[in-house]
Design goal:
- The chain has one domain: Ribonuclease Z/Hydroxyacylglutathione hydrolase-like (Metallo-beta-lactamase, Chain A, 4-Layer Sandwich), CATH 3.60.15.10.
- About 25% of the residues lie in helices and about 25% in strands.
- Strands 1, 2, 3, 4, 5, 6, 7, 8, 9, 10, 11, 12 and 13 form a 13-stranded mixed beta sheet that branches.
- The longest helix has 17 residues.
- The two termini are about 30 Å apart.
- It binds zinc ion.
- Zinc ion binds next to loops.
């Protein structure tokens, strides 16, 4: 598998009662950082997996009914900490990003997408269809802010479901098949069902860590994977399917037990956010 270089970028955070995300958690409010992942590909150059929060989130949640989203999950984003601005730390500008890979269409994963108008958008067709269906109230209830979807996304989208299917490396068992999104085996999208319609992770061969599985919102933290501790069913069923969330988490736990050295990165993991170092 061709090597890539991975950097985790923390782009804002929200606050929830811990009990919403961990079945045996407390009711105290805890911080959920939002991670974007910069991937440097040896041929295609820099690309991003998810975007984290962005000032566009605040504009999109100004009107009603979208404002309910902001009330339910208060968001903090320090000035200049959206991913488009943080690229300068890596000597990059937004125009350098040629590929944007979106795990799913919740606002905390796509809020910064508008900053990369020249990038191809790799995403799930099922996820995009679900994000575009129903009215504004139904969308907000599902964690989708329609205003954050790039208006030309249909023209720029390259769907995971249509990429060649390939076998994953043995190190990823029990996950066995991925979608080869660039056609060179370097970035393999893997469906992780349950969190919402069309929810996918990404496997790459990170030059620092070997196989690196970006699992998006399939787990709230690496600790939840190690403990096989799903969110309460009421939270999972609100956005997707608790039964499928729990089955996917069991698979991630089995992967970790079989291969404890594997690098697993959930999008809101506090351990990983601490490594991002901002
Ligand atoms: Zn999500």
């Amino acid at each position: 598998m061709r090597e890539t270089a991975i950097s985790l970028i923390r782009a804002g955070h929200c606050v929830h009662p811990q009990r919403m995300t961990i079945r045996d958690g407390s009711w105290r409010s805890v911080i959920y950082p939002a991670l974007s992942v910069l991937i440097i590909h040896p041929v295609e150059g820099p690309m991003l997996f998810d975007t984290g929060y962005d000032p566009a989130f605040f504009a999109a949640t100004q009107p009603f009914p979208e404002r309910f989203y902001r009330w339910l999950t208060p968001v903090t984003l320090a000035a200049g900490s959206e991913v488009a601005s943080q690229l300068t730390r890596f000597g990059l500008a937004p125009d350098d990003i040629r590929h944007l890979i979106l795990s799913h269409f919740h606002a905390d994963h796509i809020a910064g997408a508008h900053a990369f108008p020249g990038a191809a958008i790799h995403c799930s067709r099922a996820g995009l269809d679900a994000a575009c269906s129903g009215g504004r109230i139904a969308s907000v209830r599902r964690g989708v802010l329609r205003a954050l979807l790039p208006p030309d996304i249909a023209a720029r989208a390259r769907f995971f479901e249509e990429a060649p299917r390939v076998a994953l490396p043995d190190a990823l068992q029990p996950f066995d098949m991925g979608a080869d999104i660039l056609g060179d085996g370097s970035l393999l999208a893997v469906e992780l069902p349950g969190h919402c319609p069309g929810h996918w992770g990404l496997v790459t061969n990170d030059q620092a860590h070997g196989e690196h599985f970006l699992v998006a919102d399939a787990a709230w933290s690496t600790d939840a994977i190690r403990r096989d501790m799903p969110p309460p069913a009421i939270t999972s069923n609100f956005l997707g399917s608790a039964r499928r969330v729990e089955a996917t988490l069991r698979q991630l736990n089995a992967l970790w037990r079989r291969n404890p050295a594997i690098r697993l990165t959930p999008a809101h993991c506090p351990e990983r956010a601490a490594e991002a170092g901002q």
